[in-house]
Amino acid sequence: MADHVKIATVAALVLIATSWTPVSAQSLADLKPAPEPLVLQQQGSFFVGGRKMTNPRTGWSELSPDLFGSPQGDVMVDQMYVQFQKPANAGNHVPVVFVHGCCLSAKTWETTPDGRMGWYEYFTRKGYPTYLAEQSGRARSGFNTVGFNEVRDGLKPPSTQPLVLMATAQFAWPIFRFGPKFGEAWPDQQFPMDKVDELYKQVIPDLILTQTPDLLAQFSDPRTSVPTVDTMAQLAEDLGGAVLVGHSQSSGFPTKAVLKGRPGIRGIIQLETGCYGNLDAEQVAALAKVPILVVVGDHFSTPQPPPECVKEMEAVNKAGGDMTFIALPDLGMKGNSHMFMQDRNNLQVADVLIKWIEEHVERRKN
Amino acid sequence: MADHVKIATVAALVLIATSWTPVSAQSLADLKPAPEPLVLQQQGSFFVGGRKMTNPRTGWSELSPDLFGSPQGDVMVDQMYVQFQKPANAGNHVPVVFVHGCCLSAKTWETTPDGRMGWYEYFTRKGYPTYLAEQSGRARSGFNTVGFNEVRDGLKPPSTQPLVLMATAQFAWPIFRFGPKFGEAWPDQQFPMDKVDELYKQVIPDLILTQTPDLLAQFSDPRTSVPTVDTMAQLAEDLGGAVLVGHSQSSGFPTKAVLKGRPGIRGIIQLETGCYGNLDAEQVAALAKVPILVVVGDHFSTPQPPPECVKEMEAVNKAGGDMTFIALPDLGMKGNSHMFMQDRNNLQVADVLIKWIEEHVERRKN
Lengths: 366, 366
Hints:
Two copies of one chain form a homodimer.
Chain A: H1 3-13, E1 38-48, E2 51-55, H2 60-63, E3 73-77, E4 80-87, E5 96-99, H3 119-125, E6 130-134, H4 148-152, H5 173-176, H6 196-200, H7 217-220, H8 227-238, E7 242-247, H9 253-259, E8 265-271, H10 281-287, E9 292-296, H11 307-318, E10 323-327, H12 346-362
Parallel strand pairs in A: 5-6, 5-7, 7-8, 8-9, 9-10
Antiparallel strand pairs in A: 1-4, 2-3, 4-6
Helix pairs in contact in A: 8-9
């Protein structure tokens, strides 16, 4: 694989890393009070999608044949959990849907590791109906357990069991861009490094290999898919139109949904890559119909924009589209990490997205 | 095991089941508007607890030796995710912490399967600072993946891998008490059976067997423990006092925390069992210092209260304690299921808890 693809792939796959400080357990005490009350018109949660299947080995009968009967039964898989809140002052703002990256949950967008306001509350306070979706196969969306107990009970070869991916501190140091080497942060690092343990607590097992045989192809080939691509798109359609925001692992999901012909996607925001450099004319024409914003942070060791973003942007904009690439340092924001929704200047970064939504989505004429 | 213990154990372990209707995907459309704006003083999320460990096989290097280096690295396990909201009208109400049961997440307390207000919003509207905790090892709290990839890669015998528990529709019909037999609901059933598929989407893999070798002992022996017992207790202490609410699998957790000498637990609410019949004098004395409420629904095939609740209540109250057992039918509420926080009369049931908190916790003299 070419070096730039390799770097982009790793950057898109990854998370996490930094100096390993003691667990402070000060997270509750760290919470900052809100500036003024948050007035909600509505709050709640629901699921999108999901399909029924028979799970052949649910674990209970092996646990106690005396208490539990059949080892099999019907379950739901591939559903996507969504939490939302609508501010009382929503006006006519477009709904915004946030989907987290690899090995993380919707916690990504909530209170930061050092107790400041996250994007979930901030976008709501700015008047946007705000939706946090949890990737199908992660956290409250559950995952498909077929194959695990079968291996455990000797019914299938161990090699058939999907790998359970777990991001570690050391794993991603260079890609997460906390500093030049593990344990050393950039002097201008915007991530709250003194509370990095609180970020590590957000890191949870990633079961995406139960959904796709080739994770790496997901990052280079826009025709590949996982259930979240469809459930994100379904949510946009159900909402009567929405801006879809993906980060890292999910940064390319909204583009994939558009290329599948899904309606209702009024804007695409790709945080930290998500570009595809080799699109055919039909794909380019489809993407030219939806405003696209790519935002990346600081301290990349490679030139920005990445080659695949340059290629996609040139093709889409030549076809009459509206694709924008923003490297935060070009706006004067220095030191942002891969997790800039949690960096010290996270609300300043949010304002970049909000300005783009207003100008490129809400004032769009068509 | 004695029949009543067996029934209580199954009732405490279980969830889910009912007639298997088509997936409607109408969950967003089903959302009911709120009666009036919800005004929050503060909202957010954080973690309690967590410990660092080295994960020997995180899956990445097997996925691509070319891209990723060492198979091992440092991760966090046993942390507990908590979301919360404080109403602007909180006054002096005691914080209330809700912990879900087996195979479910904190979604349990949010919007009901048919789109009505859940207890999270209702308790907040009633003036309580309200906290939803996700059991360590579930959903946003992650789980300890050690052992899975080792088996997959042939480094450990398959039989060493923890069972992944998955509740099915058929599994729990009689215990979940939707009706007399699978596919048939009680005529007075309070659960919104037309939206039961939305409940099935809440059911996610339960990894508690990564935390304890003997799940069944957890229900009969109050000295057993899992990490959530300590993280719940820590949250109560960090909050400067809280009422802890457990349901089903977690119904006995607050009692276990008190028996471990944990401070800050101002009240225990056990939804659907959580009693221990064989307590020694020291344990009884400890429990006599904390008000305890047990609430169960309808359609049990066995007499209520269960024998272990009768024994615990008699012992605790004789020692000067304040333990109350409420079977909802005795208050005139008929047809409530195991998931009465989602039943059609869920807010009426919530009022039973709120009245008890006011009378037994907030007006308590000591």
